[in-house]
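=== Given protein ===
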Amino acid sequence: MYEVVLTRKQREAEGIFSFRLERPDGGALPAFEAGAHIDLTIDIADEGAPDDPLGARPGRQLIRQYSLCNPPPAGAADHYLIGVLDDPASRGGSRALCRQLEEGRRLRISAPRNLFALAPEPAPALLVAGGIGITPILAMAEALTAAGRDYRLHYCARRRSQAAFLSRLATAPHAARSRLHFDDEQPFDAAAALAGAPAGAHLYVCGPAGFMDHLATTALNLGWEADRLHREHFGRAPAVVDSGDLPFEIELASTGARIPVAADESVTQALARAGIDIPTSCEQGVCGTCLTRVLAGQPDHRDQFLTAEERAAADHFLPCCSRARGPLLKLDL
């Protein structure tokens, strides 16, 4: 973890703020690549924070993921920049940042991680952002520019007033490669954008779940290969539910206690019911915050975080979404 200070908070669009984070001593932060995000620990104030299913009640802490949107540095970074939407449906995190944090506040962040990296080959890129999804997409555009790679960028928002970082997009070479789409001016035509992409391009899309699903479905219907489709998940997604799920038990290595997990609840919910609170964030198996060591039993992996090799090892799993393939999992808790 790194301690950082909020050195600049700036309104970028209607309901969207940017936050510049620096080391208090002016030291360097780890280098990162386009598409990377950080975990940010947020202290919820005593008043004004909504209750939510994560237990983010006043006086508690939240861990949230935010994409880095400053240009990726060649080496160590002197600052990180994130963009945050003051979401009316906030589970506590975005509202705390946008409404409670002021310049000078110290925060704790993780080192950058990248689950949305650009493909290493010099293939063209089609970048598509919806709303606050512009944050990783903007960093990607600037990294592609620096590498001399071909790309096209489409940025979609309901209204011009809700589109962030427009001044950065208007500067060369972004202006020539970028297209802006607003529902009340020139709506986005996904099929046209995909059909006009350079041959062999990879699609990178970030935005609301329905927006990303529409792009992916349209691309597949137009003959795009699945391995050329990349998406970033932000916001809450539905839990993976299987009508054939069966109950099982969790054994705690520290006490030997066994906790039943019902067919219609997650492991984290069962543990919370037993008074055991483990850190969670995305609840989708994307961020890895709740990664837990498995000492015995076979996990039923349903996450997007572990690699194929890590899943095969069966010695860790993400209890926010994964289950057991047998009657018992023994956890290092």
